[in-house]
Each structure stands twice: as C-alpha cells, then as structure tokens.
TrEMBL record, chain A:
PANTHER family referenced in this protein's UniProt entry, alphabetically: ABC TRANSPORTER PERMEASE PROTEIN (PTHR11795:SF450), BRANCHED-CHAIN AMINO ACID TRANSPORT SYSTEM PERMEASE PROTEIN LIVH (PTHR11795)
Any matching Pfam family: BPD_transp_2
Identification of the protein by name: Branched-chain amino acid ABC transporter permease
Family of the protein in this entry: Belongs to the binding-protein-dependent transport system permease family. LivHM subfamily.
Originating species: Bradyrhizobium diversitatis
Assigned keywords, A-Z: Amino-acid transport, Cell membrane, Membrane, Transmembrane, Transmembrane helix, Transport
TrEMBL record, chain B:
Transmembrane segments: 82-101, 108-126, 153-174, 205-225, 237-266, 278-297
PROSITE patterns: PROKAR_LIPOPROTEIN
Classification via PANTHER family: BRANCHED AMINO ACID TRANSPORT SYSTEM PERMEASE, HIGH-AFFINITY BRANCHED-CHAIN AMINO ACID TRANSPORT SYSTEM PERMEASE
Signal peptide: none
Top-rank lineage group of the source organism: Bacteria
InterPro entries cross-referenced by the UniProt entry: ABC_transp_permease (IPR001851), LivM-like (IPR043428)
Keywords: Cell membrane, Membrane, Transmembrane, Transmembrane helix
Membrane topology reported for the UniProt record: Multi-pass membrane protein
Localisation: Cell membrane
Organism whose genome encodes this protein: Bradyrhizobium diversitatis
Protein name from the UniProt record: Branched-chain amino acid ABC transporter permease
Pfam family, one: BPD_transp_2
Amino acid sequence: MSDALQFLMSGLVVGSIYGLIGVGFTCIYNVTGIVNFAQGDFAMVGAMSAIALNVAGVPLWLAILLAIVITSVVAVLIERTAIQPVRGDVMRGIIVTIGVGVVLQGLAAIIWGTDAQPMPAFSGEKLIHLLGATVMPQSLWVIGIGILAMGGLDLLFRRTYLGQMFRACAMNPFAARLVGMKVETMSLVGFVMSGALGAIAGIVVAPIALTQYDSGLQLGIKGFVACIVGGFGGPVGAALGGLVLGVLEAFSAGYVSSGYKNAIAFALLLGFLLFRPGGLLGDYDRVRA
Amino acid sequence: MMRWRILALAAAALLACAATGNGYIISLLVVIGLQALPAMGLALIAGFTGQISLGHAAFYGLGAYGAALIGRWLGVPAWVDIALSTAMVALLAWAIGWLVFRLKGHYLAMATLAFGIIVQICFTEMHGVTGGQDGLTGIPPLSLFGLTFRSDAAMLAVVWLVAIAAILAAQNLVASPTGLAMRAIAENEVTARSVGNDVQSIKRLIMMVSGAFCALGGGLYAHYIGYLSPGPFDVGFSIKLLLMVAIGGFADVWGVLLGVIFITLIGELLKPLGAYDIVAYGTLLVVSVIYCPNGLLRGMAALVARARRTAIAGSTR
C-alpha cells in the first residue's frame, strides 16, 4: 500500500510538470494553430538560465524571475522570426518548430556545456513523511505551483478581458479581427505566456531532475501527450491529462518495468487518439480526418 | 526525355565518384543511396499525399531487424529475407495506416510519433529477440547468384540500382491516376472525396508503398552494416527524413534525392564546426522551410532568376 502511495505521489509530481508544459502548448496552439515542438526546450532554457544566474551569485528568487523573463523574450523572438511566416501551415509549422528546438539545444550546449546541472531546492532537502510515503519538499513546491498556475490561468481565460480576447481569437480569428482585435498581438501574448509557463515548469522540476541541453525534447513530447489526453483546449484539461499520464507512468515503472514506462505512456496516447481523440474533456470533430 | 537525361546524369556522377576509388566517398554514396529509399517513401506519403509522419524511422528499423532476424531464423539467403521483411512491413504499414488515418494534422503527427517511439523502445527492451542495446551482430553480407557483395564498391552498385529503380517506380506512381488522386488529397481532401476518390484507401495504399520503401532500405542497411542497434532508428532519424523531404521540396521525386544528398553532405561538412554544427543545421532548416517552400533547389533557382532579371534590368537602363 505504501508502495502505491509512493508511486501516486511521484506520479502527481511528474504529472504537474507535464501539465504545465502542456498548457504552454495550448496557449500557442489556440491562437496560432501551430503546435510548438520547441515547447520542452523553453523549460530547458528556463532551468539552465536560472541555474547559471544562481551559480553567478544572483539570489535564487531573483535568478528564477530573471530566467522566466529571459525565456519569455526568447519565445517572443521565436514568434517574430520563425512562427509568423508559417502560421497555419501544419506540416511546415511542425518542421520549423522542430528546427527551432534544435537551434535552442545547440545554443544551450554552446553556452552552458553538455553536462547535466543541478539546482538547489527551494526549501531544503529534509524529507517529509506523509501517510507512509516519503516526499521531498520540492515535490510539494511542484504540485503547489502547478495548482496555482493552472487555477490562475483558468481564471485569466474565463474572467478577464484579456482572457476573453484570447479565447475569441482561438475560436474564430477572422471574426476576432473583424471586431477590431489584433490577432498578431494575441499570438505574441500567447508566446510570452507559454514561454513563461515553460520556464516555470523547467525551474520547479530542476532541483528534482538534473537539467541538460537536451532534456527539453522528452518533456515537450510528454506535455503534448498530456494535452491530448486532457482534451486540447484549456488549463484544466492539460492539468488533468498531465496527472493521468504522470500517475500511469509512475505505476507502470513501479509494477511493470521502467524500460517500458515510456512505451506504455505512448500506447495510452495512441489509445486516446484512436478511440477518444477529443481527450477526456474535449470534442471529437475538430481532429477527425 | 527529361527523366532519362537526369538518370544518365545521376549514373555518370555515380560512376565518376566510384572511379575515384576513394573509400570515404564510396561509403558516403552507399549511405546516401540507403537513406534515399526511406526518404522517397516518406515523400510519397508526406510530400505527395500531404499526410505527415514522424514515425518512418520505425519502418526502416523494422525492415532492418526483420531482414536480419528472418535470415537468422529461417536460414534463407539475404535477398529472400529482405523481400520477406519488406512484405511484412508493407502489411504492417497498411494496418498502421488503417489506424492512424482517422486523424489529421498534428494529431496524425503525434500518433505516428508515438508509433515510432514505441517501436524503438521495443528494439531496446526486447533483449531476447533484438539483443537490446548490445544489438544484433554477425549479419551476413548480401549475396546473389553465388556472388557475395562484401566490398563497399559492390554494395554501391546494388544499393543504387535498387534506389534508382525505387525512384523510377515512385515517379510512375506519381504520374498515374492514383498519383493525381494523391495530389488532390494533399490539396483538399473534401474536394478529392467529392469527385469520387476513395480517400482513405488511397492513403492506406500509399502508406503501404511508403513502408515497403523504408523496409527495403532497412534490409539493405542491415546486410551492408552487418550490425544492428536501436540507436539509428530513433525519432531523430524520422525527423531527419522529414528534413530531407522538406529540403527536397516535399512533392518532387528528384528533389528528394537532392535533399538526401544535401542533408548527408551538410552533416559531414559541419562536423569540423564542433558544437556549432547543430545550430547551423537547425538554422538552415528553419530558413529553408520558411523561405523556400518548394525546396532549397527551386528556392535557389528562383533567387538566381531574380538576380539575373535585376541584372538585365540594370544593364538596359
């Protein structure tokens, strides 16, 4: 039983990260119609720049804030130079964002080297015992920040003027333009948000898992799986999908084999794509061939 | 006429390279020929039919492992095991098509990516069959009519004969009525269906042909290298194939061959740059996909034509 609880805890932690990455995908997809395959690399850039700043003597909290800003700026640069020209073209969008991810990885390897780098935990390493499971304090940070970010985004989308404009552009960019919204600006806002979210995801998980120049790809793919499982659309779906994926992975690593854990995650993805492509919360019609 | 001229040109270039007797150049040419097969397969489905796939490395890998294992288990000659494994992968590709072509766009990309990752994990984890990370060793070289193709030069001839045959086959397919239907699907699926094309079965058929091309390349690769490990069949290779198709201009048979040559040579040329090679590679990819939507070659040609026009305009003024 305590095994199961332990797996559940680690699943929830990993799942929160996948959810955070996943919601970054939706921020971009909803406005530009492009799935950003470099999303995971935003997490890597965020974590690596926070670590580098911290090592250079900047206090941790300031390093984290600066890293989030840096990543958002990187996201804006990418949007302006690479995404604008291919907006709406699925195949070229995929190839361009993969290329952007490759460039980010290469630059990270040049700037920060290819070694995996650790980051100090936010509040010490003292283990917490909870109902027979052992939990690192950082895990609670991950879950807490995950909940805060998702809840905040959900409120932003549903309750604020900016969120309404955002949703309008996602539903029907043409109509949004007709009533005077600047879809291009919204696309920029989407990239800023997704860069910031990616950076946050990368930074909160950095003390648990080492970060290196190529950690982004795996994270990105898993985040996208979370999106699909949850139903492409809102923060709640992405969070739910991330948790389902994370818990399933932890249990299959624990009870089946850690080698096959990714295969099981992707089998889940295939299952969802084929039998319930709208995800847990979404609708089916927009993905059907 | 055009086709024979290109063919003669390609053959002459190959012979010229082979005649140099430089081992490095010859092995590079064999690699290009081997990768041309899966790239052409991917071009048929992604370029001409407009259905993206991020899992084609899996078909290549299944062809390679399939050929090696069938040869080992049944004790049949190399060409028989390549043929058998190609047939099996073609069937599998058809079945995969039946599953994944319910989806489109990003969802299709993700489904094929998932397929590719699952297959690669199986290569790594099924130690009893594939040897896991240690790989399969001792795959015999290709032999035909009592001749054994041990040297690179001999493989060069075999691989390129197969590759050129495949390219010509692809060209014929594209020029056939099915080929027109493929392009119609790529342009607009609803329209294609409305004029009476059975869109889904055409997609499945092309997926099957595409899988067969990949498996053929994989089988030849297995018997050329003589050793298989899961590494070369990862998502990275699927992406590389897509780059070759993109650089080649998506729906352009000979362009794709140039894409294969270009990506392979760029990989070799950028090696001395050290860590910067991957940055240059990615930048090139992004720039060429954004600014040369019809492939690098046509993009360059358009640029040259534009430069000439401005030059002429300048001189007559």
